[in-house]
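Standup notes
- HV: blocked on the assembly model, inputs below
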Amino acid sequence: MIEGAAWRRWVFFRIPLAGFLIFLLFPFYWMIITTFRPDSELYRPWRAANYAPFWTWEPTLTHVKYLFNETVFTTWLWNTMFIASASTIISLICGVFAGYALSRLNFRFAGSLGSAIFITYLVPQTLLFIPLSEIIRAYKLGDTPWSLILTYPTFLIPFCTWLMMGYFKAIPKELEECARIDGASRWKAMIYIVLPVAVPGILSAGIFAFTLSWNEFIYALVFLSSPEQKTVPVGVVSELIRGDVFFWGPLMAGALLGSIPVAIAYSFFVEHYVSGLTGSVKG
Amino acid sequence: MVLLGLFIAYPFIRGLLLSVTDTRVGVEGPFVGLQNFERLVSDPIFHLVVWNTCWYTFVTTIFKLGLGLWLALLLNRSFRFKAFTRAFILLPFIIPTVLSTFAWKWMFDPTFSVLNWILYKLGLISSAVNWLGDPELAMFSIIVVNIWRGVPFFAISLLAGLQTISPDLNEAAAIDGAPPLKRFWYITWPLLLPVTMVVVLFSVIQTFADFQIVYVLTGGGPANATHLFSTYAYQLGVGTGLLSQGAAVSLAMFPILMLIVVGQLLYIRRVEVR
């Protein structure tokens, strides 16, 4: 705690912290308030005398209803859920095995492979989206969920592998060696001894990978074209803006409802998420 | 493993091949050598793109680091609702960027902007500010949004770094009479430096290749004033169908990124050795 007078606590601690919180959370508040605000209030210029930005007296569900009745929002949600789960599971399985192999098995090139993983993990998606879209087209995967389920692992697997490598390295080797001495094969020792210990690490990698693929935008934007195939971010962007007209109410409702699933998933696993985040930057 | 190599390396090589031909959507183009890159060198928009991207990355990283560090230091104290606050602070980083950027876009809207209202009521402006319509302000706006999104990442990662520093060191220095600023500069900062460098490295790469914020807020406009590598590549490659030129733009990112990464990795190594 801060030593000294109460005013010091206010000036050096509470006020800055409150400032940060307002700065970081205000857009979300704005999203929520816009969602439930009737159009007549929404499209009132800020110069108008009765512009009341921070509250609404006539909350309405019109925008939410519009979203569900006039667009295929539920399909988008479902698509996103499916794609994110499938690619997370694929990447987790690969990441766990690859991470284990790289941290435990002593084979040639293990070190350089590890660095290679780290480099690929750093490759941004925007570098590769054009050639990938060519490949997707060549294999006739365009406009299917598989185009994303197969491409998301390109950035998720390196991430999971990297995280799991760090995690496996932290598990003492002796644990496994005991099991090996008792006659377990390497495979059995891994499944029954190492994996259960590594569950928190796997959870961290999983939750992080899930939010990453839920948030992914550019691949989904480029690879998907028909409205029924889109994920939430792409759907909201492309179907709720027609030409130059922004449907702000439904847009914000879509943004809000599209964010809620990740927010819920995140709130259950905050600790794991944070350890995933910090683990991901540990060299 | 092989699969992974295939998935990254193959598109990369494919991209290289694509960038030396003259392919448009649906039409396989002939080999044209380095023409696409030559065209970029003489393309004034591309010059702007390079400058924009560097400026954008530079400014946002400085601010994200400064604010993130400040926030991390604030969070490193014990207070009530700490876990709760920390969970909320990460929200901008969790929520799909595209969706939260829309909230910003709505806040920046010239006619209905809540920001204008606040600034007007505070007496800071007298007429509407066209946040996204003016080239300089548009750049400012995307920088603000990027900082908003990036600060939590910096704060939480640096907080993790701060927590590994033993409080004994600070206490010992305090007993010896070192003022807080000196304690920070001579104890906390050097010990935190390795973590800081890695976080900065990550952030620089992500920011350099950023797409979503610009795509949603301005689409590169007004008059290409906010185009970054990725949005320009998207516009060329997907918007107008000049796949090869788009691929060339996004590949042009690679050498610059490579330089930054190698430079920073070398620096990190030096810091760690010391």
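- HV (later): unblocked. The radius of gyration of chain A is 24 Å. Residues 65-281 of chain A form a domain with the MetI-like fold fold (CATH 1.10.3720.10).
- Next: hand off to the docking folks.
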